[in-house]
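Schema walk-through. Below, the input block comes first and the output block second. Nothing else is stored per chain. Lengths vary across the set, and this one has 309 residues.
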Amino acid sequence: MTLDPQIAPLIGELDAGFPPVHTMSGAEARAVIRSRFVPAFRPEAVADVRDQAIAGPGGELPVRIYRPPGNGLPVLVYGHGGGFVFCDLDSHDGLCRSLANHVPAVVVSVAYRLAPEHRWPAAAEDLYAAVQWAADNASRLGGDPGRIAVGGDSAGGNLAAVTALMARDRGGPALAAQLLLYPLLASDFDTASYQLFGSGYYNPKPALQWYWDQYVPSEADRAHPYATPRNADLHGLPRAVMVTAGHDPLRDEALDYATALATAGVPVARAHFDGAVHGFMTMPMLDIAQEARRRASAELGAALRSPHG
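--- output ---
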């Protein structure tokens, strides 16, 4: 198992440059990450991109809506990564544009409330509220109310998996699929992938532990399925597309969740990128990132064309 040839020469610089967020407050970490953000010089064109606010459980909830050409498209409600603490609509703008065009789908990117100012389950409740809004407004968005999906990367993958559980448990919108990109799913920091890749691979163990401390500081709360989806009964959930990176501390929990979903009778399409590191799909200069975007989009498109129920 070797790193992708484009990542290997960069990994030392990437890892050394990752800020020691575990020594900061949430606001400090957010400011550092935001200060390093460089917007794309020429963002990928999408037919229509607009920002608006919808009603959320904590007040106005900002969303960014990406609409490719056509009507009756599936709708993907998307939660960005960032350890539940940082990143925003801008940090994941490039990925959302790519998903909108490649699936193709209307993408609703959600600026959910961030920890530690807003602890569990605030972020998940925000994403669930956005799914409800998207289902109610799909036709107006050029979407198909019968093909609503939820997705996210890293911490956003946790929120997407939890939102799928909430929708099932609460009799909410009947979701057609869930897109889980190297999701952060469990506060078990002793897996084999944590031992192998918890240091030196850009997403260090101390940061991952800190993310959980910010969002779900209570060990008792972490046992809840809406914090750790692996603890849920997984029967009756929508089809899943699981993208994993081989050199990621979160690899094993994601692979375990995919297996658990399949055991519960949930169809799972797996896309594993052995040479990749955590977060690689938001690094558009990498060929492997572009390949992953295309493949994840194709798998999600296929899932959304399959019979549901």
